[in-house]
């Protein structure tokens, strides 16, 4: 059947409902794990989400790279959707900064009318946090190098720079884990611990998600799925990575440097 429009009418798919079930199991399993250390539900949720991601991304790659369904009009819609998604993520992190400044600018008597609260030894902002800042800023440079290489048709440089970006993302995650393991306070240590670990922890989760995006792009680059003018999968992943970079700059400036 011929179509006389530039839009992609998506076929019925089981992955949205399976993804929703995976998210339900993950959130429910997280609560059970935090309170009762029950692991079975969170493991089921993780496996369901991973399987859904692999299968759904496989379908999207087929539609874009092999079936030619991602026309210029469809690509425009995908870019607009990604912009809306990142905008919602901005508001998501805005709520954490709101909680942090609400607590730090007018500390209550319960925490000693002081910020950081009495008994809290903040992390040194010019130690691991500064190194993490340099790592993420460097990854922003390398991913821009990848984009320019794709536009110029240089697969060798694109492969090299994208691999370097992924390694920097993994190194950032390793440093974050190292920082958490050496911290003198926990998420349950007053409002300082809560705001610190929730804000930086969710940012760390976004780094892991962004690294996963870039890993998929690296595999697709290896199979020649990207051209000089059709690489929206990488382009939206790069937008997401730059967003993660900017959020970290605010986290470092406000929570690590000013907050200590």
TrEMBL record:
<dbReference type="GO" id="GO:0016020">
    <property type="term" value="C:membrane"/>
</dbReference>
<dbReference type="InterPro" id="IPR035973">
    <property type="entry name" value="Cyt_c_oxidase_su3-like_sf"/>
</dbReference>
<keyword id="KW-1278">Translocase</keyword>
<dbReference type="InterPro" id="IPR024791">
    <property type="entry name" value="Cyt_c/ubiquinol_Oxase_su3"/>
</dbReference>
<keyword id="KW-0496">Mitochondrion</keyword>
<feature type="transmembrane region" description="Helical">
    <location>
        <begin position="238"/>
        <end position="258"/>
    </location>
</feature>
<keyword id="KW-0560">Oxidoreductase</keyword>
<dbReference type="Pfam" id="PF00510">
    <property type="entry name" value="COX3"/>
</dbReference>
<dbReference type="GO" id="GO:0006123">
    <property type="term" value="P:mitochondrial electron transport, cytochrome c to oxygen"/>
</dbReference>
<dbReference type="InterPro" id="IPR013833">
    <property type="entry name" value="Cyt_c_oxidase_su3_a-hlx"/>
</dbReference>
<dbReference type="InterPro" id="IPR033945">
    <property type="entry name" value="Cyt_c_oxase_su3_dom"/>
</dbReference>
<comment type="function">
    <text>Component of the cytochrome c oxidase, the last enzyme in the mitochondrial electron transport chain which drives oxidative phosphorylation. The respiratory chain contains 3 multisubunit complexes succinate dehydrogenase (complex II, CII), ubiquinol-cytochrome c oxidoreductase (cytochrome b-c1 complex, complex III, CIII) and cytochrome c oxidase (complex IV, CIV), that cooperate to transfer electrons derived from NADH and succinate to molecular oxygen, creating an electrochemical gradient over the inner membrane that drives transmembrane transport and the ATP synthase.</text>
</comment>
<comment type="similarity">
    <text>Belongs to the cytochrome c oxidase subunit 3 family.</text>
</comment>
<feature type="transmembrane region" description="Helical">
    <location>
        <begin position="82"/>
        <end position="106"/>
    </location>
</feature>
<keyword id="KW-0812">Transmembrane</keyword>
<dbReference type="InterPro" id="IPR000298">
    <property type="entry name" value="Cyt_c_oxidase-like_su3"/>
</dbReference>
<feature type="transmembrane region" description="Helical">
    <location>
        <begin position="197"/>
        <end position="217"/>
    </location>
</feature>
<feature type="transmembrane region" description="Helical">
    <location>
        <begin position="158"/>
        <end position="177"/>
    </location>
</feature>
<feature type="transmembrane region" description="Helical">
    <location>
        <begin position="40"/>
        <end position="61"/>
    </location>
</feature>
<dbReference type="GO" id="GO:0005739">
    <property type="term" value="C:mitochondrion"/>
</dbReference>
<dbReference type="GO" id="GO:0004129">
    <property type="term" value="F:cytochrome-c oxidase activity"/>
</dbReference>
<keyword id="KW-0472">Membrane</keyword>
<feature type="transmembrane region" description="Helical">
    <location>
        <begin position="126"/>
        <end position="146"/>
    </location>
</feature>
<keyword id="KW-1133">Transmembrane helix</keyword>
<feature type="transmembrane region" description="Helical">
    <location>
        <begin position="12"/>
        <end position="34"/>
    </location>
</feature>
<feature type="domain" description="Heme-copper oxidase subunit III family profile">
    <location>
        <begin position="3"/>
        <end position="260"/>
    </location>
</feature>
<dbReference type="GO" id="GO:0016491">
    <property type="term" value="F:oxidoreductase activity"/>
</dbReference>
<protein>
    <recommendedName>
        <fullName>Cytochrome c oxidase subunit 3</fullName>
    </recommendedName>
</protein>
């Amino acid at each position: 059947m011929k179509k006389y429009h530039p839009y992609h009418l998506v076929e019925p798919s089981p992955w949205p409902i399976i993804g929703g079930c995976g998210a339900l199991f993950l959130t429910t399993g997280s609560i059970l794990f935090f309170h009762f250390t029950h692991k079975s539900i969170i493991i089921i949720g993780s496996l369901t989400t991973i399987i859904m991601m692999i299968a759904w991304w496989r379908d999207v790659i087929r539609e874009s790279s092999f079936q030619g369904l991602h026309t210029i009009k469809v690509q425009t819609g995908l870019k607009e959707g990604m912009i809306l998604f990142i905008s919602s993520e901005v508001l998501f992190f805005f709520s954490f900064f709101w909680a942090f400044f609400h607590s730090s600018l007018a500390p209550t008597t319960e925490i000693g009318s002081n910020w950081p609260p009495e008994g809290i030894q903040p992390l040194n902002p010019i130690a691991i946090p500064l190194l993490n800042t340099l790592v993420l800023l460097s990854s922003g440079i390398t991913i821009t190098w990848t984009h320019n290489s794709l536009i110029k048709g240089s697969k060798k440089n694109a492969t090299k720079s994208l691999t370097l970006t992924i390694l920097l993302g993994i190194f950032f995650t390793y440093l974050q884990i190292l920082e958490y393991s050496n911290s003198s306070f926990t998420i349950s240590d007053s409002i300082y611990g809560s705001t610190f670990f929730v804000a930086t922890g969710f940012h760390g989760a976004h780094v892991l998600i962004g690294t996963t995006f870039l890993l998929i792009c690296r595999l697709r680059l290896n199979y020649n799925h990207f051209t000089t003018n059709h690489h929206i999968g990488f382009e939206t992943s790069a937008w997401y990575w730059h967003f993660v970079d900017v959020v970290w700059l605010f986290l470092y400036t406000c929570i690590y440097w000013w907050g200590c």
